[in-house]
Write a structure and sequence with these properties.
Largest sheet: 5 strands, mixed
Radius of gyration: 13 Å
Number of domains: 1
CATH superfamily: STAS domain
Number of strands: 5
Mean pLDDT: 88
CATH architecture: 2-Layer Sandwich
Shape: globular
Low-confidence stretches: 97-103
Number of helices: 3
Strand order of the largest sheet: 1-2-3-4-5
Structural class: alpha/beta
CATH topology: Transcription Regulator spoIIAA
Length: 103
């Protein structure tokens, strides 16, 4: 069970982190630390979860905290987005997802 995290520099002062794999326990702690550290160095951080296929309760909790800090959580429509939204995590639809029909 691994989580791959890659960073891309966005335009302006923002940055983008992409996560792929399973967001569980210790990986959630690592991802949260990366996001918070990047947020302290940048004005804006966006977290792309399009490649994440599973999130456990520790991952959901970490994403809730990140969302409250102003980090944009992007996710394709599907099981992961459904779980996050049901748990109160603000999810921004992935604009590249042709199956996402949310308004």
């Amino acid at each position: 069970m691994t989580l791959r995290i890659t960073r891309e520099e966005g335009s302006g002062s923002g940055a983008l982190l992409r996560a792929e794999g399973r967001l569980v326990a210790s990986w959630a702690v690592l991802l949260e630390g990366e996001c918070v550290g990047l947020l302290q160095a940048r004005n804006a951080v966006s977290l792309d979860l399009a490649g994440v296929d599973f999130v456990d309760s520790a991952g959901v909790d970490a994403l809730k905290r990140l969302s409250r800090r102003g980090i944009v959580i992007r996710c394709r429509c599907g099981p992961v987005a459904s779980v996050l939204e049901a748990e109160g995590v603000r999810v921004t639809p992935d604009v590249d997802d042709p199956n996402d029909r949310r308004p």
